[in-house]
Amino acid sequence: MELEVKQKITDMEMGKVSVIIESKNGNQEKLESYIKEYNGKVAVIDENRVKTVYFKDVIKFYCEKKTNYCKTAEKTYVIRQPLYELENIASCFVRASKKTVVNLDHVTEFEQTGIGGGIIFKLSDGTEERVARRRKKKVMKSMKEREI
Q1: SS3 letters for the chain?
Q2: Closest-CA residue to 120 (of 139, 93, 142)
Q3: pLDDT attached to residue 10
């Protein structure tokens, strides 16, 4: 794959970058989706103000007492989107359980438990998330696609 990045001085001031990809093996779709996901954002509520957080900064989304949250390394925010929408916004997110969507980029390690072969994710913030048995197959597929 050949990758060429052209950047004009006027575009740099506006934060625009043009990328030209010439590929014969189909990797351009992977690169394009990676760039879109890396720059993707989710709206969060911070002290009655709406702001955005990059997908790459999200460790997990979770539900607690009928309220959905977005956990980052710096802070936990309230979000309005339901978890079923958030699990499909980018390929880095996978539904671990009924109450949790995990960002695979923040999984530092995972272990398979002996009983039933369950999975426990260890996340970059030091917490652990157990993968529900019924979600195990899809989680393993997502991890394999992302080469984790």
Answers
A1: CEEEEECCHHHHHHCCCEEEEECCCCHHHHHHHHHHHHCCEEEEEECCEEEEEEHHHEEEEEEECCEEEEEECCCEEEECCCHHHHCCCCCCEEEEECCEEEEHHHEEEEEECCCCCCEEEEECCCCEEEECHHHHHHHHHHHHHCCC
A2: 139
A3: 46
Band (31; pLDDT cuts 50, 70, 90)? low
Residue 145 vs residues 41, 88, 92, 120: alpha-carbon distances, Å: 22, 15, 10, 19
Cβ–Cβ under 8 Å, residues 80 and 68: yes
What fold characterizes domain 40-145? OB fold (Dihydrolipoamide Acetyltransferase, E2P) (2.40.50)
What pTM, to 2 d.p., does this model score? 0.70
Residues 59, 69 contacting (CB under 8 angstroms)? no
pLDDT of residue 129: 86
Which segments of the chain belong to CATH 2.40.50.1020?
A: 40-145
Determine contact, residues 93/104, Cβ cutoff 8 Å: yes
Pairing of strands 100-103, 107-112: unpaired
